[in-house]
Amino acid sequence: MKKENGKYLLCPMAKLQKIIAGKWKVYILWILAHQTIRYGELHRELAGITQSMLTKQLRELENDGFIIRHIYNEVPPRVEYALSDLGRTFVPILKDLNQWGQTHLK
Amino acid sequence: MKKENGKYLLCPMAKLQKIIAGKWKVYILWILAHQTIRYGELHRELAGITQSMLTKQLRELENDGFIIRHIYNEVPPRVEYALSDLGRTFVPILKDLNQWGQTHLK
DNA sequence: CTGCATCCCATTTGATACTG
DNA sequence: CAGTATCAAATGGGATGCAG
Fold this sequence. Notes:
Two copies of one chain form a homodimer. By secondary structure, chain A is an alpha+beta fold. The first copy, chain A, has one domain (23-104): Arc Repressor Mutant, subunit A, CATH 1.10.10. The first copy, chain A, has six helices and five strands. Chain A has helices at residues 11-21, 25-32, 39-45, 51-63, 85-89, 91-104, and strands spanning 3-4, 7-8, 37-38, 67-72, 78-83. Chain A has a three-stranded antiparallel sheet. The first copy, chain A, starts with a strand and ends with a helix. At the A-B interface, β2, α1, α2 and α6 of A face β2, α1, α2 and α6 of B. Chain B binds a DNA duplex (20 and 20 nucleotides) through α3 and α4.
């Protein structure tokens, strides 16, 4: 590992950590990694999350550039969420995390 | 991805997420990934963390089986921290996270 | 040097009700 | 259906002082 000014280069981890720090972020990304999904279905998959929290997490992921929100002008309203290009680059890591968890956290 | 009872298998991620959720956990692991280190030096590397917080995080990582605490009966007291076998299995993921951050979070 | 105890604040998360 | 608003609760994190 490289050092700089005698300190470890922790910076690259900093932003990344904030992304996966939330209680639901990785779950949301993990679901979106496999499919585009509507708000309502996402809410059902994430048993336990409240609507307000889900909305908040989705907004943050959107602002961080990880996901894309597609609004259809229909009645009833329909909104779909999908990974962005950036989000897709993160999928291999999600798979590794999942694999590690299955292997080591029995 | 496999489903079970109509829900995604999020469980493997659950415990893992709690480990990396803390504000300092990944940093501590990242430093320990490269060397065994004393409490004091770790405290200096992690600029900004308070002693009580560092102690707390180290205890949690120890309880989770990620790190090992080695106490030397000396005066002045000396305590060294190192990754456990389990902790070392997590190093590749830490490297991937770091690499991803450097690539995508400029 | 290592690290515990106490108090305190900020942020995060949750419960509930309501709306276009 | 897909949210927003409001309030309450839990948690995380920090400041400070003390101790073996």
